[in-house]
């Protein structure tokens, strides 16, 4: 990790963590699915809580077990399925914006109810839009920021710092 490329270092990607934005448009005629988050309500609120515009990619963590470390000052929001959220071992609220610092370790437990948890970062992730102008991952079709794989392909996700 270099100082000019701050972001989130993925420690444990969990069972299936994907990058999801609002999905791709105009690709169904090519036989491709639109993609996007499974829980659009929770995804949209995560982005809204940190002031991101519609279509901003967030992490969709399925079944929990996710752990990451901040490499810079970030504002995040966690929404979706009920799972524990700890930063540096301390329980934190969900459905609100939280400021985290370099070196802070974020751990999402396994959901007590529901399946998918969304983690949005203020300013979004530094991604190059793919097919249909989207970064949404569709494992079956091999599209999105990580192609046909879950987040295992990216040890660091670049995102802008907040000061």
Explained architecture:
The protein is mostly beta strands. The chain contains 1 helix and 11 strands; from the N terminus they run E-E-H-E-E-E-E-E-E-E-E-E. The protein has a 6-stranded antiparallel beta sheet with strand order 7-6-9-4-1-11, with no helix packed on it. A hairpin with a 2-residue loop joins strand 6 (85-87) and strand 7. The two termini are 19 Å apart. The model has no long low-confidence stretch (mean pLDDT 82).
Write the layout of secondary structure elements.
Layout: E1 7-13, E2 16-20, H1 40-49, E3 58-62, E4 66-70, E5 74-82, E6 85-87, E7 90-91, E8 97-100, E9 105-108, E10 113-121, E11 156-158
Antiparallel strand pairs: 1-4, 1-11, 2-3, 3-10, 4-9, 5-8, 5-10, 6-7, 6-9
Search tags:
single chain, mainly beta, six-stranded antiparallel beta sheet, 1 helix
- Average pLDDT level: 82
Question: How many strands in all?
Answer: 11
As residue ranges, the low-confidence spans are none
- Given helix and strand content, the structural type is mainly beta
